Design the sequence.
């Protein structure tokens, strides 16, 4: 996984609460077999008019936000479906970090698996960031995970909290599975004493079952 | 030992490794997968040259993209065909149990896990699907995960998880007639909001919950995620054990007795503490209908579409305005005056045999309104379908003008060809009324099977309590 240490970039606003993952990646794009290429379909139904014509009313289509790499969002961002296609699309679009007052649990967790940093700030801090983004065309901020601060070049400086373990994993771009496999002896020990295999007491037509 | 909650007992029994300041490594007893979110996980396993650690603990089903029409015909949707081929290939290569679209036991993964007895009390269960919370109805710790975590479980049979907070949802009083588990959980979400349970595992308690069938408990736990909590649970009891006994994967004879002994040790101890408690007064509950674009935007059947100005918080006002614009509803409209284009009875929330029996009782001897373009019944599994046909429910539905389909997720998510057209309005027994969920521009109202069935007959919402439905819940 790509580490996240510090990133400076153009900010784009998405001023809506409870943005669900169905909006991030609508169902018709859940049939692909890859992890790549979802940036084009991010917020598809909001972003495009029929014929995949950009919807001029949707903020990400405003020329001033072209090339944005930091997304401002509102409360409970990423609620709904567990689809990891959502953070894949966020990342593939070019966003490195999200700033919001709160996130839905599964989405929040999924972001960390993909090198996307979801920063949690207060509602007041978010209001200020939305205001500055609106007021200053080309508004950029720096998100520094090492220092746990969000700064801009006008003196804004917000510190944020994040679980130390998650921070460490993201800073180093650690592979979760690799970390877990370091505890292989513990897993084996657990399995020796506690593992109970499913037993089919009545035959059902299931393929590839091993008894 | 200090008194512990159901959640804490299961959690502690599954800890493989713990270190201060780190998430715990938790063993996963049952892993469910489907064609939608798993292919990239297998690609990851292959790319890293890893193995599937315990293939026998993973169960796969085709559900999201399957046709609910004739399965014998070739799959015309090339992308869906690709998903089915990938799942079959992956299960074959790694030796994973697969219920493919032709299995007699095929169905929505959250329907077939319980009905085959793969789901059992005390287990940890995960699936790349947020409605995995369903399985908590058995007193299991079950939650949805992303594709990276699917890969993690395949490779290690474990997950690295942070300890959740606990929320007790206590229903006080008895369940009134015409009020179902669906209405109870919608009332919870209406009360706590769709983010109210974030960071929590919920446990549903109280006489009204104890009085629910397993089907009802599954409906309730299924929608826990719509209130933000990843997992919902109900303590196992005699209803649970009676449901499980004799199912294909449930121990038999003396082993069943031993299993029940263990399951009886799981319920929350007296005096155990929860981080949050929510109380719902059953006397005040009525059939519920959503009016907006998330499940928290919900009201009682006797109410009216709310005025956005009635919300205190400007953020809520704005969200309500947006939702009403999308839903094309005017504030003050009586919920019962909302007319419908389509009816969908199905989904992992409400497609079990009890749901179909209830809906069938409502429609028996009546006919779908001429104003309704389509009324669909999609059983959650082929076992449910077979059972319903044995009871003659299919004939009741067909005679009433409903379509009777094969099992799958269908119009809950519209990944097959069961979709709403733009601007169409649907009474749906599913779990999400998000924009475009059932089809781009489609408008979804979430209701119970009783309410959906009655709406099909009248062409608009009606208060099911005004109907004399013999024997219905």
Sequence:
């Amino acid at each position: 996984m790509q580490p996240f240490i510090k990133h400076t970039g153009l900010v784009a606003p998405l001023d809506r609460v409870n943005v669900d993952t169905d909006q991030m990646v609508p169902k018709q794009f859940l049939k692909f077999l890859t992890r790549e290429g979802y940036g084009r379909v991010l917020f598809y139904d909001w972003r495009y008019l029929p014929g995949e014509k950009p919807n001029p009313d949707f903020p990400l289509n405003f020329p001033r936000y072209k090339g944005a790499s930091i997304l401002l969002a509102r409360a409970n961002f990423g609620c709904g479906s567990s689809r990891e296609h959502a953070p894949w699309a966020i990342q593939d679009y070019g966003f490195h970090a999200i700033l919001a007052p709160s996130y839905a649990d599964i989405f929040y967790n999924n972001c960390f698996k993909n090198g996307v940093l979801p920063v949690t700030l207060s509602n007041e801090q978010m209001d200020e960031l939305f205001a500055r983004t609106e007021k200053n065309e080309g508004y950029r901020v720096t998100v520094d995970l090492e220092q746990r601060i969000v700064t801009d070049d006008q003196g804004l400086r917000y510190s944020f909290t994040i679980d130390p373990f998650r921070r460490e994993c993201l800073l180093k771009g650690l592979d979760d599975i690799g970390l877990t496999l370091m505890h292989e002896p513990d897993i084996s020990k657990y399995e020796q004493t506690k593992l109970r295999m499913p037993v089919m007491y009545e035959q059902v037509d299931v393929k590839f079952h091993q008894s | 030992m200090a008194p512990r909650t159901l959640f804490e007992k299961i959690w502690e029994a599954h800890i493989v490794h713990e270190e201060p300041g780190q998430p715990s490594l938790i063993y996963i007893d049952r892993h469910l997968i489907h064609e939608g979110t798993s292919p990239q996980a297998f690609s990851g396993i292959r790319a890293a040259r890893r193995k599937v650690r315990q293939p026998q603990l993973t169960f796969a089903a085709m559900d999201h993209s399957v046709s609910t029409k004739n399965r014998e015909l070739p799959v015309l949707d090339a992308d869906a065909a690709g998903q089915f081929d990938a799942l079959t290939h992956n299960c074959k290569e790694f030796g994973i149990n697969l219920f493919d679209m032709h299995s007699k036991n095929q169905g929505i993964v959250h329907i077939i896990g319980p009905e085959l007895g793969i789901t059992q009390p005390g287990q940890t269960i995960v699936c790349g699907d947020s409605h995995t919370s369903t399985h908590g109805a058995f007193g299991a710790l079950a939650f949805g995960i992303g594709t990276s975590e699917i890969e993690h479980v395949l490779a290690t049979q474990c997950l690295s998880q942070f300890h959740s907070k606990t929320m007790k949802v206590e229903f006080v009083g008895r369940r009134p007639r015409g009020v179902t588990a669906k209405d109870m959980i919608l009332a919870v979400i209406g009360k706590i909001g769709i983010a109210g349970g974030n960071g929590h595992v919920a446990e549903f308690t109280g006489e009204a919950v104890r009085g629910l069938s397993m089907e009802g408990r599954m409906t309730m736990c299924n929608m826990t995620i719509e209130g933000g909590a990843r997992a919902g649970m109900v303590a196992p009891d005699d209803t649970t054990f009676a449901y499980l006994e004799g199912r294909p994967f449930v121990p038999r004879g003396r082993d069943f007795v031993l299993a029940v002994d263990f399951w009886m040790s799981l319920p929350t101890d007296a005096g155990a503490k929860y981080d949050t408690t929510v109380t719902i007064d059953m006397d005040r509950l009525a059939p519920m209908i959503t009016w907006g674009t998330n499940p928290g935007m919900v009201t009682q059947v006797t109410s009216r579409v709310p005025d956005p100005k009635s919300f205190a918080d400007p953020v809520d006002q704005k969200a309500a305005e947006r939702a009403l614009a999308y839903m094309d509803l005017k504030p003050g409209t009586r919920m019962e005056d909302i007319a419908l284009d389509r009816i969908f009875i199905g989904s992992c929330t409400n497609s079990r045999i009890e749901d179909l029996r209830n809906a069938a009782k409502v429609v028996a001897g009546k006919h779908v309104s001429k104003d309704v373009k389509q009324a669909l019944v999609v059983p959650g599994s082929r076992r449910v379908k077979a059972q319903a046909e044995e009871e003659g429910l299919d004939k009741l539905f067909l005679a009433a003008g409903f379509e009777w389909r094969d099992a799958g997720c269908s119009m809950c998510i519209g990944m097959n060809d069961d979709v709403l057209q733009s601007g169409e309005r649907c009474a749906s027994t599913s779990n999400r009324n998000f924009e475009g969920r059932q089809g781009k521009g489609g408008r979804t109202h979430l209701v119970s099977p009783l309410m959906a069935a009655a709406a099909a007959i009248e062409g608009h919402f009606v208060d099911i309590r005004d109907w004399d439905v013999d024997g219905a819940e």
